[in-house]
Every structure is written in C-alpha cells, then in structure tokens.
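Q: Structure tokens for this one, please.
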Amino acid sequence: MNNILPLGVWFFLIYQFLEQYAYYGIKSVLVLYLTCQLGFSEDEATARFHLFIFTAYLSVILGIFVDHFIGRFNTILLFSIVSIVGHGLNAMGSITPINKSLNVGGLFLVATGVGGTKPSLMSFAGDQFSLPEEAARFHKFSSLFAVFSNLGGLISSISTP
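A: Here is the predicted structure, written as tokens:
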C-alpha cells in the first residue's frame, strides 16, 4: 500500500505549524509588549493576556456553529482571513502612534481566528482520505499533524523571546 501522503494535506500540516508558531509567538511576549510598549499596567496587561487566551478557546465554539452553516472549507477560509487581518493590525499598530487600539483589536482577531479554525481543520483534512482503505495514511497524517502543531509552538517559544 502506498504510504505517501497526498500533496494537498501538506497544506494542513504547514498551516497548523504556522498558526501555532504565530499564536505562541504572540502569547510568549504579550504581557511584556502590553506593559513596556503600550503602557498598560501589569494588572491590565495580565487581564488582556488572559482575555486573549480565553477568546481563542471560546471562539472554538463559534467555529463549530459557523462550520455548521457555511461548511468546513469556508469556515477555515473565513477564520484564517480574520487571523491574518489581526496580524496585520498588530503589525500596523506596532509602527503607528495609535497602536493601542490597533493592537487590542488585532489581538482579538488573531485569537478569534486561531480558535475558529480548530473544529474544522482536522476534520476537513480527514476528508481528504478514503477510509477505511487509507487508514494507515490517515494515521500517519494525524501523527504528523500533532508533530507539526507542537513544533510550531515549541520553535516559536524558543525563538520569539
């Protein structure tokens, strides 16, 4: 049996790596950035840090509902665009004088985008395999998905600070 993964599923692996890299990169320096660069008090920064994480987890529920109405592909596309816009706002906010507003909005969008793709990403990737004929290939993909996800977070945590 051919154990090589279909070309299309590599997109999911790379996407998951990059998404985790970006999320954990923001998460690892967020309190420092909010206090040192944006002038929030330590208490305000800590509250916003926890709100960022909470939003990422809560938006998973939103992703489930959106997936039900517009489908997996469109859900992944929509929340990916939301996340990209959030990263863009964070980038613009870091170089403009009104950076507080842009960064707070950008953080909300990044967290919403990251969480919103979670319910759809793995199941949409699984749709690329014909089960039970390709069960071994799907198992290999699932393992690689976990590896890419954890590598994204690990490399980001090491390289970001």
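A few notes: The radius of gyration is 17 Å. Helices lie at 9-37, 42-70, 72-93, 99-126, 135-159.
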